[in-house]
């Protein structure tokens, strides 16, 4: 059990990088890291103002007063850090940290031979030597990574560390492969892919047996690209509960970091005790992503802009409605054979929300039983979400107009659905009619709302924003979830 009373399903540690100008500032941040739930702190000596740094006194103070186990790093500029001074002094400070009681020190692979010569093989048993390598350009092949790990192990490292850069999200699969296979050797490993495309490597390392992951104290204050916060790891991704059997789900998109889907799904997983995690997946090519992560452990995906139409082509089976719409926003991998089943929930969620709000506003059902029947329904956008809304509104008896930046694409969708097409530029001079519904399925902010009802031929301001009614506010919240995910 953790101190918070949450049962831990893994031994992977959360390490908080501590970067500050002064020792006093570091001590404040170290205590903050403990209160947030970190397991240890990485003290970045290279972040301190070097002109006032007294190695023995300052390191002794940090070791003595740290509320958590310590990892000392003194990263040089040639390995992505801030220290640009004398190399002998840098290594001597790390040796001093080891002798004064540090729990871990991090020495770069390029410098470890010099460090080993410095200690003459005399290393305190309490201190674990992490030997690290950082690649800020790409993620090498599995063979190259395997050779790198073997080279690091040969230095006498207690813990192997490598960090690469994820140029594509498929690069992370190689990091997972090496992490899982390294468990056989018995040498703990810290392995991650940096950058937004590598986020999954930091969140899922407990599933593959990683020794630790790095979690920052606040957004934007990172020691390497792509680090999540401690609070996101614990509260958003349920980090303590992840393990080898955890099923992975996620939201595929580009961009995708704005999505609230992980917040919704992970909270739901936690509430019912389901062993799954839902993550952001910044994907450039859907087919390559699905081909790479074809294991049934990667069990299902939501999909947002711009991949909904591409995902349809990648599914082994597609729901007939999704086929008619021409877009898939949800794909589930069948556990028995790994095949991918695609469907579209955009139109159900969005149209139902609009109907419910209309009924709550006192609008009577039309001839089809839907309050949308006979209404003019203008959809901004002809992508996957636009197709879904246009299809759903048409099925309810609405009259459809498609407005899109590219007129030809609007015309193509209007011909399929049975409606009118206009360009986005024409929308500014479009004459509304009473009871018309305007639904924005793009990233463009249309006066602050996603859905509007036009009453008596004009918009009505509400609460300082250009909303037509309370209905707009309700649907804005719901549509943001269902349409933009």
Automatic annotation (TrEMBL):
CDD domains: DHQase_I. One of its GO terms (biological process) is shikimate metabolic process. Residues 251-330 form the Shikimate dehydrogenase substrate binding N-terminal domain. One of its GO terms (molecular function) is shikimate 3-dehydrogenase (NADP+) activity. It comes from the Eukaryota. InterPro entries: Aldolase_TIM, Aminoacid_DH-like_N_sf, DHquinase_I, NAD(P)-bd_dom_sf, Shikimate_DH-bd_N, Shikimate_DH_fam, Shikm_DH/Glu-tRNA_Rdtase. Residues 373-444 form the Quinate/shikimate 5-dehydrogenase/glutamyl-tRNA reductase domain. Pfam families: DHquinase_I (PF01487), Shikimate_DH (PF01488), Shikimate_dh_N (PF08501). HAMAP family: AroD (MF_00214). This is Dehydroquinate dehydratase, putative / shikimate dehydrogenase.
């Amino acid at each position: 059990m953790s101190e918070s009373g949450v049962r831990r399903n893994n031994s992977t540690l959360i390490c908080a990088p501590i970067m500050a100008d002064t020792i006093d500032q570091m001590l404040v941040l170290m205590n903050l890291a403990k209160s947030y739930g970190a397991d240890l702190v990485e003290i970045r000596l290279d972040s301190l103002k070097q002109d006032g740094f007294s190695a023995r006194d300052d390191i002794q103070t940090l070791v003595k007063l740290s509320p958590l186990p310590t990892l000392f790093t003194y990263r040089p500029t040639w390995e992505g850090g801030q220290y640009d001074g004398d190399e002998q002094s840098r290594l001597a400070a790390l040796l001093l940290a080891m002798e004064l009681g540090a729990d871990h020190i991090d020495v770069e692979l390029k410098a470890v031979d010099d460090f080993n010569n410095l200690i003459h093989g005399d290393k305190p048993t309490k201190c674990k030597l992490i030997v690290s390598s950082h690649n800020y350009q790409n993620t090498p092949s599995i063979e190259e990574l395997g050779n790198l790990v073997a080279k690091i192990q040969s230095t006498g490292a207690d813990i192997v560390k490598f960090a690469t850069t994820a140029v594509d999200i498929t690069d992370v699969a190689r990091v997972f492969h090496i992490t899982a296979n390294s468990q056989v050797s018995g040498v703990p490993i810290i392995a991650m892919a940096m950058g937004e495309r590598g986020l999954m490597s930091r969140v899922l390392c407990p599933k593959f047996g990683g020794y630790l992951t790095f979690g920052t104290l606040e957004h934007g204050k990172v020691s390497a690209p792509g680090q999540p916060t401690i609070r996101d790891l614990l509260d958003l991704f349920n980090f303590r509960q992840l393990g080898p059997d955890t099923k992975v789900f996620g939201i595929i998109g580009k961009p995708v970091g704005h999505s609230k889907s992980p917040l919704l799904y992970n909270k739901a997983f936690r509430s019912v005790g389901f062993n799954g995690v839902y993550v952001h997946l910044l994907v450039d090519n859907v087919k390559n992503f699905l081909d790479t992560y074809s294991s049934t452990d990667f069990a299902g995906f939501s999909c947002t802009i711009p991949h909904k139409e591409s995902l349809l082509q990648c599914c082994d089976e597609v729901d007939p409605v999704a086929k008619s719409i021409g877009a898939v926003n949800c794909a589930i991998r069948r556990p028995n054979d790994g095949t991918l089943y695609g469907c579209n929930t955009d139109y159900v969620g969005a149209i139902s929300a609009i109907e419910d709000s209309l009924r709550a506003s006192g609008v009577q059902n039309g001839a089809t039983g839907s309050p949308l029947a006979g209404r003019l329904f203008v959809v901004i956008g002809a992508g996957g979400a636009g197709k879904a809304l246009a299809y759903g509104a048409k099925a309810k008896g609405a009259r459809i107009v498609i407005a899109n930046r590219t007129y030809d694409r609007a015309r193509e969708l209007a011909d399929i659905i049975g409606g009118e097409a206009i360009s986005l530029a024409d929308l500014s001079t479009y004459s509304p009619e009473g009871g018309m519904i305007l639904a924005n399925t793009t990233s463009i902010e249309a006066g602050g709302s996603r859905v509007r009802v036009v009453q008596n031929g004009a918009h009505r301001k509400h609460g300082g924003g250009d909303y037509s009614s309370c209905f707009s506010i309700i649907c804005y919240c719901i549509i943001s979830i269902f349409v933009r995910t």
